[in-house]
Design a protein that fits this description.
Helix content is 36%, strand content 20%. By secondary structure, the chain is of the alpha/beta class. The chain folds into two domains: 7-51 and 383-438, Urease, subunit C, domain 1, CATH 2.30.40; 53-373, TIM Barrel. Strands 1, 2, 3, 4, 5, 15, 16, 17 and 18 form a nine-stranded mixed β-sheet that branches. Strands 6, 7, 8, 9, 10, 11, 12, 13 and 14 form a nine-stranded parallel β-sheet that branches. The longest helix has 18 residues, at 95-112. The chain is globular, with a radius of gyration of 21 Å. The structure holds zinc ion. Zinc ion is lined by residues 57, 59, 120, 233, 269, 321. Zinc ion (ZN) binds at residues 57, 59, 120, 233, 269, 321.
C-alpha cells in the first residue's frame, strides 16, 4: 500500500453486507473516499451499520412546494391539477434558487439515509424558454448543491419535447423544459465533462407523451448514450395509459418493451399500471421499476402490483420524487402498507415463509437503486464509494433486537428517525443526527422560499 494513502479503519458490531447482517463488521476507508482492504486496529462506529440507500427519482425543485397542493379545488383533483400548482411554482425558480432548494433537500436526504440521488432534471431554461447564457446553468446548480452537501448524484438531464401523445407543442409554462434532439445531445455532452467519483451522468426521456418515437430512437442510438442509465416516467396515470392506447395502439410499458431494447440500463419510473403480461416482460427485461410510494399515494396514482412483480423476479428501487416525504423508511413502509390495505393480508413483500419483510425490501431497494444509478453494486464492498449509515444504538426501537428483527424494527417501528451518523464518500457528513452545514443551508433555503412566496 502506498504511503500517501491513509486508510481509516472502522468496525460495527453488525454490518449489512448486501444480502444480510454480518458480525464481522470491518470497514476501511481510503483517502479517495472508497472502501479498501481492512487491516489493523479499528474505531467502533456503532451497533448497526448499513450501506446508504440510493434515491432513484428526484425533482429537487418540488421540495419547496411540498404541502402547497393539499387544499381541495375542483371535485376531480388529481395529478393533473397538482401539476398546474407545480408549474406555477416552478416559473420563478432560477439557478440560485434551485441550488438553495436542492441543498436543503439533499441535507434532508442524507439525514434520512439516502447517500446517492438520481436527479430527473427538466427545469433547463429561463421561464420564457430561452436558454441561459450558459445552457447547463440549472444542471450546474444541482451539481453544486450535491457537492456542498456530500451526497453523490446521477444527473439525468431530461428530454422533453411535446405536450401530449398527439405531438402538440409545449404549453407556455412547459417551454423551459424543452429541447430539440441536437440541443439535448449537446447538453449531455457538456455535462459529461463534470463526471467524477461523486457524479454520474445518465439520460432521461420525460415520458412517452413528451418524446415522439423518432426522437426516442435518435437519442437511444446516439454515441454518448451507449452504456448510460436511461430513465423514463411510465404508466403513472390511467389517463396516460388510455392516451397511449388510443394513439400508439398499446399500453405504455407494452409499447416501450416492443419499441426499445429495454434492459438493465433502464429505470421505468412509477410503472404503476401494469397488466399481467407487462409484469412478466418487465421483470424479465432486467429494468428497474422505480417506485415512489409516498408521492404516488399523495397524487392518487394507484398501486404497483408488488407481489406479482417480485414473484416474476423483477427488480425495484425507491425514490422520493415530489419530496412530499424524504425518507427511505417511509417509502418502503408505504410500499408494503399499500399492498396490505388493498389485499387485506400482511407481510406481502416477503415471498417465503420466515422471510423478513424489512430485509426483503431494503435488499431489493439497494440492489435496484444501485442499478438505476449506474453504480456497480448496492453493498459495502472494496472499491465502492464509502457511503454508509449508522443507526442509533440508543433508540428504544432497537432495544434487545436480534439480527433477525433489527431491520423490521428500523423500517416499521415508530416515527423517530434512527439514522444517527452518515458517511458519504468517506466523510462523516451527518454526526449525531446533524448535517455539518445544516444551519447555513436551512437559512439560505428559508430566504429563497420567502422570496418565491412573495413573487
Ligand atoms: Zn417524477
Amino acid at each position: 500500500m502506498s504511503e500517501s494513502i491513509h486508510t481509516r479503519n472502522y468496525r460495527a458490531d453488525r454490518l449489512w453486507l448486501g444480502e444480510g447482517w454480518s458480525e464481522d463488521g470491518a470497514l476501511a476507508v481510503d483517502s479517495t473516499g472508497h472502501l479498501g482492504a481492512t487491516e489493523g486496529p479499528a474505531e467502533r462506529i456503532g451497533g448497526w451499520v448499513l450501506p446508504g440507500m440510493p434515491n432513484l427519482h428526484s425533482h429537487a425543485f418540488q421540495r419547496a412546494m411540498a404541502g402547497l397542493a393539499e387544499r381541495k379545488g375542483r371535485s376531480d383533483d388529481s395529478f393533473w391539477t397538482w401539476r398546474e400548482t407545480m408549474y406555477a411554482f416552478a416559473a420563478a425558480i432560477g439557478p440560485e434558487q434551485l441550488k438553495a432548494i436542492a441543498a436543503q433537500l439533499y441535507v434532508e436526504m442524507l439525514k434520512a439515509g439516502y447517500t446517492h440521488v438520481c436527479e430527473f432534471h427538466y427545469l433547463h431554461h429561463q421561464p420564457d424558454g430561452t436558454p441561459y447564457g450558459q445552457p447547463e446553468a440549472m444542471s450546474l446548480a444541482l451539481i453544486e448543491a450535491a457537492r456542498e452537501t456530500g451526497i453523490a448524484m446521477t444527473l439525468l438531464p431530461v428530454l422533453y419535447m411535446s405536450g401530449g401523445f398527439d405531438g402538440r407543442p409545449l404549453a407556455p409554462r412547459q417551454r423551459r423544459f424543452g429541447h430539440r434532439v441536437d440541443s439535448y445531445l449537446r447538453l449531455l455532452d457538456s455535462l459529461k465533462q463534470y463526471e467524477a467519483a461523486d457524479l454520474r451522468i445518465g439520460v432521461a426521456l420525460h415520458s412517452l407523451r413528451a418524446v415522439p418515437e423518432a426522437a426516442m430512437r435518435e437519442v437511444l442510438a446516439a454515441e454518448p448514450v451507449r452504456d448510460l442509465p436511461i430513465h423514463i416516467h411510465i404508466a403513472e396515470q390511467i389517463g396516460e395509459v388510455q392516451d397511449c392506447l388510443a394513439t400508439r395502439g398499446a399500453r405504455p410499458v407494452e409499447w416501450l418493451l416492443d419499441h426499445a431494447d429495454v434492459d438493465a440500463r433502464w429505470c421505468l419510473v412509477h410503472a404503476t399500471h401494469l397488466e399481467d403480461n407487462e409484469v412478466s416482460r418487465l421483470a424479465r427485461s432486467g429494468a428497474v421499476a422505480g417506485l415512489c410510494p409516498t408521492t404516488e399515494a399523495n397524487l392518487g396514482d394507484g398501486l404497483f402490483p408488488l407481489a406479482d412483480y417480485l414473484d416474476a423476479g423483477g427488480t425495484l428501487g425507491i425514490g422520493s420524487d415530489s419530496h412530499i416525504s424524504v425518507s427511505p423508511v417511509e417509502e418502503l413502509r408505504w410500499l408494503e402498507y399499500g399492498q396490505r390495505l388493498a389485499t387485506r393480508h400482511r407481510n406481502i413483500a416477503a415471498r417465503h415463509e420466515h422471510d423478513s419483510v424489512g430485509e426483503t425490501l431494503w435488499r431489493a431497494a439497494l440492489r435496484g437503486g444501485a442499478r438505476a444509478a449506474g453504480l456497480p453494486i448496492g453493498a459495502l464492498r472494496e472499491g465502492t464509494r464509502a457511503d454508509a449509515i449508522v443507526l442509533d444504538d440508543d433508540a428504544p426501537q432497537l432495544a434487545a433486537r436480534s439480527v433477525g428483527a433489527a431491520m423490521d424494527s428500523f423500517l416499521f417501528a415508530g416515527n423517530r428517525p434512527l439514522v444517527r451518523d452518515v458517511m458519504a464518500g468517506g466523510q462523516w457528513v451527518v454526526r449525531d443526527f446533524c448535517h455539518r452545514d445544516e444551519a447555513g443551508i436551512a437559512s439560505r433555503y428559508r430566504s429563497v422560499v420567502e422570496q418565491l412566496a412573495a413573487s
